[in-house]
Amino acid sequence: MPLRLSLCLLLAVSVPSTFAAQAPGHTDITRWQGDKTGAVSLTFDDGIITQFTVARPILDSLDMQATFYVITGKIPGSFGGRFIGRNREDILREAAAVPTDSTTFFERASLIAFTGTSEAVDYHTRAGEAYEGGGKKQAYALMDEAYQKLLKGKLRDTDAVVFHDNAVDTTTWADLRQYQSDGHEIASHTVTHPKLAVLDEANLLYELEQSRDDIKRFLGPAATFSAEGPYGTEDERVMEYAHRVYPALRNRMPAPYLAELNRASRLAPGAQEREYVQWQRGPTDGTSLQTMKSWIDTTLAHDNVWLVEVFHGVDAYGWAARPGAELREYFTYIKEREDRLWIAPFATVTKYMREREATTVSSQYSEGTIKATLSGKLDPAVYNVPLTFKTYVPDGWQAATLRNVSGPSSERILSVETDENGSFVRYHLPPDTPGWLIRKSE
Questions:
Q1: Is the pTM of this model over 0.90?
Q2: Where is the signal peptide (predicted)?
Q3: Fewest CB within a 10 Å sphere: which of 169, 325, 331, 367?
Q4: Is 2 part of any domain?
Q5: Does the pLDDT value for residue 362 go beyond 90?
Q6: Helices in 317-382 by DSSP H: which ranges?
Q7: Is residue 1 part of a domain?
Q8: How far apart are alpha carbons 188 and 291 in whole angstroms?
Q9: Which of 77, 73, 68 is nearest to 49 (CA)?
Q10: Residue 159 and residue 161: Cα distance in Å, rounded?
Q11: Do 186 and 266 lie in a common domain?
């Protein structure tokens, strides 16, 4: 149901003899919750066990919440990975007789990962990398090579550790429910972590929809808001399907007010002129702690940057693993700047931005009363992150009382602050709040 609400702010005072630079009653929804300078979301990919046993306790000790994109197929109780499609033997016979081309590639690339060896999975991955990099002929040749080896019984298990398919990660849905109740976001990273760009429609939809359905079954519908397609894919075909399944994707979220700089981008976030800049950074094996801290400093040097950090391994386990001691120092560095930095999970920041962009505030000052009307277009059952409002008040106020005028009577005191535009009060309201009363506090 669309969001249709009115917010009345009645500020009962005598008309002041002088006005602030910003007229009394002028109301803004601040760019970031809490009227912070910038935002940061800490995200972790693959659901690696040390993310939960090492990184998460550090975050909890600092009262910081993160987003964990989990591979649902390796969690006990979930529907695991599988090939959806024609009989395997028919596909093998065709692969023995007909070279791979555009008409057979997606089906063969979908099946090969489920033929029983880690080398087969590696062929799927390498073919996906080639395809997304524009090397379609190379991708077709890799499929032909893989199937020739498979038909001759030469595909083998390798010694390589595949972090998105291993027996060490033993996180349960019960564990994830507890982490979710502690404020962390648990979200989808597909069923098996494939190269989505080289899956045919049936298998692409299974990876997206089955992961969502398992998360909904074990964690509830609220956990199905955001997702991350593996390997940071931005393939247009994948994005078209994925946006039908999930409201938000860390991969891509095109919006006229949002500039998206992915992890590979070398563009400076400060050079972007849109209302918001999602700036993705992710430490690799060569990234120093000082470089990571510089990302925070850059975020705070502007007022529109949302730093989205992407972590994988922790404590020598997982890709680009970061030591727990380093994470503690880094997360502490972030926490120490919380007065200017909004630290929140990916879904929370996304919802706030969309709520703000979809909401219109109109206000009127007359005879000592300020009335403001709030209208929006989003479903409050989904978009329920409190917005931060900043309302300018007449000079001379020292404090104000905020009271709910539509429900049970409750009051809270608001401090009056000042900036270059005058005196104001700042407060948080859920996007479906019907009305409030603000008076000068004696």
A1: yes
A2: 1-20
A3: 367
A4: no
A5: no
A6: 324-335, 346-357
A7: no
A8: 29
A9: 68
A10: 6
A11: yes
